[in-house]
UniProtKB/TrEMBL annotation:
GO cellular component: cytoplasm
Domain Glutaredoxin: 50-113
Protein name: Glutaredoxin domain-containing protein
Keyword Cytoplasm: yes
Species whose genome carries this gene: Fagus sylvatica (Beechnut)
Localization terms from the record: Cytoplasm
Protein family membership: Belongs to the glutaredoxin family. CC-type subfamily.
InterPro entries xrefs: GlrX-like_pln_2, Glutaredoxin, Thioredoxin-like_sf
């Protein structure tokens, strides 16, 4: 029987001494994503025209990012660790001013909670997404 290999966000890199796991595959300085905790959520929402909050490694977050990039938007993607999920969710609820539940991926456009994957896809299909992104300053054309 084969043993499962646990998921790791780090990749093995060749070094002079063999393989090393010291360097992660993505960092906040080289890509447009970062790890977020509850202390900087409000600042990120207010500073970015479009921001996507998702769990670390979430495939639906990746789908939203690719859709927005296909439209010409360069969204900020913030990954939420499992240990910070409750605190970040509570902060997102506070910022949005809504009661209830925030599900990941949570997309903020123009500083307001836009919705999740379903809302982004529905507005894209109906043709309403591009005007909303233009109004928020995420698209210039």
């Amino acid at each position: 029987m084969h043993q499962a290999i646990p998921y790791s966000y780090k990749t093995y890199f060749p070094t002079t001494n063999g393989l090393s796991r010291d360097t992660p595959t993505t960092t906040a300085t080289t890509s447009n994503s970062n790890i977020v905790d509850a202390t900087n959520v409000g600042k990120l929402v207010s500073e970015n025209a479009v921001i996507v909050f998702g769990r670390r490694g979430c495939c639906m977050c990746h789908v939203v990012k690719l859709l927005l990039q296909g439209l010409g938007v360069n969204p900020m993607v913030s990954e939420v660790d499992d240990k910070d999920e409750v605190a970040v969710t509570n902060e997102l609820l506070r910022i949005s001013g809504q009661d209830g539940l925030v599900q990941f991926p949570a997309v903020f456009v123009g500083g307001k909670l836009f919705g999740g994957l379903e809302r982004v896809m529905a507005t894209h299909i109906s043709g309403e997404l591009v005007p909303i992104l233009k109004e928020a300053g995420a698209l210039w054309l």
